[in-house]
Amino acid sequence: MKQSNMLLPTLREIPSDAEIKSHQLLVRAGFIRQVASGLYSFLPMGKRVLRKVEDIVREEMDAAGANEMIMPALQPSELWKETGRWDTFGPELMRIHDRHEREFALGATHEEVITSIVRDEINSYKKLPLTVYQIQSKFRDEKRPRFGLLRGREFLMKDAYSFHENFESLDETYDRLYTAYSNIFRRCGLNFRAVIADSGAMGGKDTHEFMVLSEIGEDTIAYSDTSEFAANIEMAPVADSYTKQTGEEKALEKVSTPNQKTMQEVADYLGHDLSEGLKALMFKVDDRFVLVVTRGDHEVNDIKLKNLYNASIVELASEEETLNIMKAGFGSLGPINVPNDVEVIADYAVKYVLNASCGANEDGHHYINVNPNRDFQVKEYADLRFIQEGDQSPDGQGTIKFAKGIEVGHIFKLGTFYSEKMNASYLDQNGRANPMIMGCYGIGVSRTVAAVVEQFHDENGMTWPTNVAPFHVHVLALNVKKDEQRELAEKIYETLKNAGVEVLYDDRQERAGVKFADSDLIGIPLRITVGKRADEGYVECKFRRTGEQQDLHESDILNVVT
Ligand code: ATP
Ligand code: MG
Ligand code: MG
Ligand code: MG
Question: How many helices (H) and strands (E) does the chain have?
């Protein structure tokens, strides 16, 4: 590609609204432009990188046995009403209506649409398991769109959904996609960690987030310095402040023992408005289950048990009843996969905590993390506290450290929440109908682009890893008015292009200083500069990341590049 033909508007100034490096650099280097808050156009360079990430995602998803499809972004409200999420998803769901006043959502996610397709098309165990995915724009009316591509209101997501006869099959697919995700982020060059993002008591195996390690990450990860243990700590409970603030007596004061079945009913009973952002914490203390329902107004990343000041405590009658509530699901969170072996949990003095947030908080999702009461053997209720740096790791190996992370992927065992509500069942070998067991798997494709820039830049610009670089080689003709420079640069450009190398050729009539600065900013891995020694056939090769450089004869270039 010749640079003179490209829409590649670079800027010297840092855009005033861009707080973080990836946002600043992607704008300055002419990869993206903002259209409105949280809405971005990808200019040609940005689009090339986006496509590289997409291609990696596609290859790994296909290799994992998933089939690509595409669903409409526009979704009828009826589907969302079937699962109740029309009400529980909150204001993050963008809603519009057509000329006949019919309501629609702009897809924030596609569980409802895919479940409606599968329920119509699949009815036998013989056609299971099945995994499908799409790469598509998603819409979420984020409370605070910010950080450029990291938190947009329209963004590119890969979302996948799997359907199974039983949990063993779900586990297999989940594990395969876990591996695929690891491959994807590794191929993108990222330094990442898969962390437990657990929705409760179940040993932390039911949901993982893939976190790119970065100072500007909005999530905090607790990880062991010597083992594989890593978990999101967004909302681990703090007993210290819990007891200090409320006193155990008061905390355990009974509000009632109603027979709640869903979070919505709990909310209704307590007169809470789910849209305010309701949060439920479930504790098992000795033999009692305690559901703590708190009012909203918590900020994402600042969800602490200070909310317990306004908490309502509901003591639940029995383990069975509690499990029923968990299975029924918590608002937008959906059901909790309750394992068959609940007994395992009973080893703990404080058996477990279930953290769930529902309704219209900024995230629109759940916050589940390291649970001291699950991951640690906490002897007494009053000892519950947030996991802290320096604690022993829950797996007994090593010491806990904290790091900041950007969530680029999330995999989740859904169970039968959607299939039961939407009647997606299959006939088993004995001809009996059962609800399908589901999983869902997301990757923020556009967010991943920004995450790569967060990890790969220096003071002069971006330093793309080869696999996702917009081009592999940047050829600069320092002075295109000089025939020997222009001719040699063009020859090298053609040679590389014919050899299948992705090459950008700076053929512009600009000063050398401008070309170098733009080239550093754009960050293509290898630069070939054709300058003063063009008449001898010599050029300068420079690796963007390391700064390593050497003079090469033009006849050796192909050997170095390919
Ligand atoms: P977050 O916690 O950052 O709000 P999420 O948990 O709401 O993300 P998921 O519902 O798990 O997001 O969606 C799957 C993936 O989509 C996320 O892991 C993330 O990479 C990406 N994603 C989610 N929201 C956005 C957004 N507003 N802009 C860009 N990417 C996003
Ligand atoms: Mg979110
Ligand atoms: Mg999240
Ligand atoms: Mg998530």
Answer: 16, 27
